[in-house]
Amino acid sequence: MTYILGNDVSSLIDDDAQWRDEAGTLHPGNEPKSSFASLVKVSETAPPAETLNIITGSHVELIDGIPTRVWDYRPKTAQELKAQHNAPILSELSSLDAYIPRGLEDFWSIVAFDTASLPEQERTRLTRKIELRGQLQ
What is the largest CA-CA distance in the chain? Predict the structure, then answer.
């Protein structure tokens, strides 16, 4: 939990942290914060999903008089969105490479290898790899 001293949102005090009251008295971190009227508990909010944004931090604001955690974020760049899209595809391609290495696949393409002679499971894997490569950005 996090607290603030009075309405001073710049005075963040973690639950286990030492802190000084308005009179300058130092209080140990293990002293229960809830027993001090001058300390106000911060309302914690869930961070936003990082689908299109990246969380860069957080701060506390008074919202309707209640100290509330507000999350700071920035939009993901085109490169980050591309990497996010490609990550699961590349992971699956990597696991399929254990059965049909990319070099072998490229060689088959060069020599016009008839993949119909492959066992069905291998043809399915090869087809999946081709589909996945088509999905890469």
Answer: 85
> Structure tokens of 1?
């939990």
Which pLDDT value is given to residue 134? 94
User: Percent of the chain having pLDDT more than 90?
Assistant: 64
Buried b (16+ CB within 10 A) or exposed e, 7-21: eebebbbeeeeebee
Query: Beta partners for 27?
Result: 19
**In degrees to the nearest 10, what's the CA dihedral of 13, 16, 22, 24?**
-130
pTM of the model: 0.65
Contacts of 40 (CB under 8 A, 6+ apart): 3, 4, 5, 6, 7, 67
Count of alpha carbons within 13 angstroms of residue 55, beta-carbon side = 11
Alpha-carbon distances, residue 86 vs 9, 27, 49, 68, 82 (angstroms): 41, 51, 19, 36, 6
